[in-house]
Design a protein that fits this description.
The protein is α/β, with parallel strands linked by helices and about 290 residues long. Helix content is about 35%, strand content about 25%. The protein has ten helices and eleven strands. The protein is globular and about 50 Å long.
Length: about 290
């Protein structure tokens, strides 16, 4: 946690999949460089084919890294492969930190097409803390766990209590995905009050905030949040959370809009949308961008 506190303010950036045709990160860099402050680079859990595309990101484009495959909320430490892949990509990108979902994506070595988010109980807290501590002993750059999307919540602990215990137990910062917060609130009957219980969360641990396009699916008895990333608009509930939380995040370093499947113009439009909110509420934060 102390290491990420010394990182520079990254600003408002774009979360991109390095293998996506749209948006093409090369076009974003060459034609829309004034539309974002940094890139958060994601590689779909593929660390064997990242050398060439990573090399195409100029050194003067700040970057963070979003890994996948460490499965930190699982009952035991993940295999060596995902850890070695994380180390490789950290060395290639040299980001100030790396992001990983508080979820499981692999079961018996098979990749699932959806997240199994953390079970919200004390046993899962203990396993997650142990896994994160073991991972941090091996990787060179700090890992920031991110709250995963929920379609249903299992366990009696509140999500924010779970995140607090993980952050303090593993002595790490956190990434707060605002859409994923709302997904949890929908599960527990607080969908109309996206910030319900936010006072439970240790906001000093939030280093990065995520926003993304989404849709809400209605069904008998409730609603489910579905991430669309760049293929849809940022929900007003996520922007509401951003407005509410911006003044309360003393250690915020980055705001990332995940824009996979967006056009380049659409991606930059969403960055501008978020930047307008920040300019209105916390303009001094933008003035500190890239100042160590």
């Amino acid at each position: 946690f102390q290491r990420v506190l010394t990182a520079p303010v990254m600003g408002v950036g774009l979360g991109i999949d390095i293998f996506d045709v749209q948006p093409d990160f090369r076009t974003l860099i060459t034609d829309h460089r004034d539309g974002f402050d940094f890139l958060e680079v994601y590689s779909r859990g593929d660390w064997d084919h990242t050398d060439e595309p990573f090399a195409e990101i100029p050194d003067d484009v700040p970057r963070t890294y979003h890994h996948e495959g460490l499965d930190p909320v699982g009952p035991a430490l993940c295999p060596d492969g995902p850890i070695e892949g994380c180390i490789k990509n950290q060395k290639l990108l040299n980001p100030p930190w790396t992001v990983e979902e508080l979820a499981v994506r692999h079961i018996d070595g098979r990749y699932t097409d959806f997240f199994f988010p953390a079970i919200l109980n004390a046993e899962c807290v203990r396993a997650t803390v142990a896994n994160l501590n073991a991972i941090h002993e091996r990787i060179p750059i700090p890992l920031l766990p991110e709250n995963a999307p929920y379609e249903f919540a299992v366990g009696g602990m509140h999500l924010f209590d779970f995140m607090n215990e993980v952050a303090h137990g593993a002595d790490c910062g956190l990434v707060l995905d605002l859409g994923h917060v709302w997904s949890y609130q929908l599960c527990v009957g607080k969908g109309d009050t996206p910030d319900a219980g936010i006072d439970k969360l240790d906001l000093s641990r939030i280093i990065e905030v995520h926003l993304a396009g989404a849709r809400i699916e209605e069904y008998e008895g409730g609603r489910i949040y579905r991430d669309l990333h760049g293929a849809g608009p940022i929900p007003e509930e996520s922007l509401y959370l951003l407005r509410e939380l911006l003044p309360k995040l003393p250690n915020l370093k980055a705001l990332t809009i995940e824009v996979e499947d967006a056009t380049e113009e659409g991606a930059v439009m969403q960055t501008g949308q978020v930047r307008e909110v920040v300019t209105e509420i916390r303009p001094d934060w933008l003035e500190a961008v890239h100042v160590a």
